Amino acid sequence: MRQLTQKFVSFLKKEDGPTAVEYAVMLALIIVVCIAAITTLGKSASTTFSSVGSTIGSTTGGTTAS
């Protein structure tokens, strides 16, 4: 029983666990920032493509080349 207690105390004193948690939190924050950036750029790109498409459509009279 004493050996089990010593192993448990040794496990709690190790710093590997908190390091893994810190990396997981950093990864989660990076993922959130990436998703926010992609969403913002996607909306901006959609607006730009719509603007270009409507400009091209009005320039050609709304017809497509055969």
Question: What is shown here, in short?
Answer:
With 66 residues, the chain is mostly helical.
Which properties best describe this structure?
mainly alpha; rod-shaped; 2 helices; 66 residues
Task: Write the SSE topology.
Elements (H helix, E strand, L loop, with lengths): L1 H12 L2 H44 L7
Gyration radius, rounded: 28 Å
Q: Mean pLDDT, nearest integer?
A: 83
Q: β content, as a range?
A: under 5%
Order of helices and strands: HH
Helicity range of the residues? Answer: over 70%
Distance between the termini: 86 Å
Major sheet attributes: none
The coarse overall form would be: rod-shaped
How many extended strands?
A: 0
Broad structural category? mainly alpha
Our count of helices gives 2
Contiguous low-pLDDT stretches (5 residues minimum) are: none
In words, what does this structure look like?
- With 66 residues, the protein is an all-alpha fold.
- The protein is 85% helix and 0% strand.
- The longest helix has 44 residues, at 16-59.
